[in-house]
Amino acid sequence: MLLDLYGTNRDSRSWHEPQRFAPERFAHWNGSAFNFITQGGGDSASGHRCPGERLAIELLKASLCMLTRHMEYAVPAQDLRIDPSRMPAQPESQLVISDVRRVAQ
Description:
Number of helices: 2
Oligomer: single chain
Structural class: alpha+beta
Shape: globular
Radius of gyration: 17 Å
Helix content: 10-25%
Strand order of the largest sheet: 1-2
Order of helices and strands: HHEE
Number of strands: 2
Largest sheet: 2 strands, antiparallel
Strand content: 5-15%
């Protein structure tokens, strides 16, 4: 069995304009553990949660901070179409970045 994260995250019944990158749509998120497919739903003390959830969250936070605050790079033109019949679904050219440089602190 495969979970279709690509399709679920682009379901127009759940998201207005699901193909558009719109981080502001989460500005008023109610904090419910059941809004996203992540590490399981429910209370971590009494429900099903992934034992590595805290580590995964901290790694994501550190990675996003590095990518958005501590380095600069260019994303050249490339084929970012995704074939939904392929697992794992990924852009045709994967994701190519160039001119990677550290941002002075």
